[in-house]
Amino acid sequence: MKEKIAFYDEYFSFPAFDDMNRAQNFKDTYIREKVFTNYIYKFIPFTEDEELNETKIQLIRDKKLWVSNYKNFADKNEVSVRYNLLKVSEKAQVPSDSIRFLIDTGKQMNDVSCFTYDITPFMWKYYANNSNGLCLIFKLIDTNKFFPVIYLDKSELDFTDDLIHAFQTHDFKYISRLSILPWVLKDKNYRQEDELRFLCGDIYDSEDGTMGGRIAPDKKELLGYKGTAYAYEYAGIKLSDILIGSNCKDDCRKEIITLLDKDK
Known about the structure:
It is a single chain. By secondary structure, the protein is α+β, with helices and mostly antiparallel strands. It has one domain (8-262). It is 38% helix and 20% strand. The chain is built from eleven helices and ten strands. It has helices at residues 8-11, 22-34, 50-61, 85-92, 96-106, 121-127, 160-169, 172-184, 219-223, 232-235, 250-262; strands at 39-45, 64-68, 111-116, 133-140, 146-148, 150-152, 185-187, 195-200, 227-231, 237-244. The chain has a three-stranded antiparallel sheet with strand order 1-4-10. Strands 3-8-5 form a three-stranded antiparallel sheet. Strands 2-9 form a two-stranded antiparallel sheet.
């Protein structure tokens, strides 16, 4: 990829297996410079779907973070990887099917949860259903699984060179770029989100788990998998407060107030 990508070009310049953990330290510093107060924010919308609303509230009671399969997101360009299939195949001397398999498998790697660095009217409007929802305020304890979103012109992105290098050299740097960049690059039209993403693929860790310890193209979709939940502590966050939207449904408002009173 010839395009310059703020933050990530330097992030991937550090050795992959480094006793000093310089890449993570660099990422931690970058994120904490944006998190002025040590807090990050997650907006939760309520709708007419009472069962879904109750599920969202129960997750808060259980101190769990919902992480989604990216296919559930509104942006159909999520995790898109643009590349020249013929060029990669010719240069790297690998079959087209192997290239497609790598890309499609990579899209199954992570589940995502979205946060932002600030509380804004834009976020209340578009991500809390016109203030019919909540803003969860979290203290950010551990940035290990958090990645900053970079906004750019996605039409100019091309992963052809990364794929060629990955197949030719098996260099972990290029494999890492392919496994992370599609998840954290968004079109500049979404810049107002000012997003920080929690990425986690631990759903594959257990052979007895939902995914049977194996990753494969389209596996989540074939299984009807929507996402999973992680304890706040595991995610590296601690719930500090909840702001209730001005248009929040009365029944949801009452449940949240009761929940907050119990935690006092």
